[in-house]
Amino acid sequence: xxxxxxxxxxxxxxxxxxxxxxxxxxxxxxxxxxxxxxxxxxxxxxxxxxxxxxxxxxxxxxxxxxxxxxxxxxxxxxxxxxxxxxxxxxxxxxxxxxxxxxxxxxxxxxxxxxxxxxxxxxxxxxxxxxxxxxxxxxxxxxxxxxxxxxxxxxxxxxxxxxxxxxxxxxxxxxxxxxxxxxxxxxxxxxxxxxxxxxxxxxxxxxxxxxxxxxxxxxxxxxxxxxx
Length: 227
Description:
By secondary structure, this protein is an alpha/beta fold. It has a single domain (3-221), classed as Class I glutamine amidotransferase (GATase) domain (Rossmann fold, 3-Layer(aba) Sandwich). Helix content is 30%, strand content 16%. The chain contains 8 helices and 10 strands. The strands form 3 sheets. The chain has a 6-stranded mixed sheet with strand order 3-1-5-6-10-9. Helix 1 crosses helix 2. The protein is globular and about 45 Å long. The two termini are 18 Å apart. 50% of the residues are buried.
């Protein structure tokens, strides 16, 4: 059994719009279902610790509704540790869930980045979906270079950000930031499912890609030998 650490934002304000944001719930609830079905366990870390603000909770999403209604899972989410409280040696993978809040607090959280770097260095998987790859920006590979440098990586695209009308609200454009660090950014048509694994780095384009990112992560975790 592998152990996965979900990393969630603690930022709840969407710039100066007056709107609330947070962690996009389906981007961890749907992957959690994949991990559980594969016999793996998971914990949560949030930037500030404790219950993260949530976005994307919709009445017709039964997977998310059932997750949040489960007392044990809800308690686990509410008890999310701070990055400083996490021992990377306890985890085989880290999964950065998205939500626009990540664009404000993930890129500057060097403690969370150090957790991901340590997991990767000891042979673990680093996964991220949608805006979650904002958390990859401060993560380094064993040689000190950006973890995304030279890697095939996906994320919420600049085109998708413009389509939702938030390209002037977010502090930077994620696709462009990843490319600036040397990533080979890959994508499909806007809002369609797309996920890619480059060795032990797994990324997905948008909320529709969250399940696929989890499935690719499981394939790596369950492989007889990891790359």
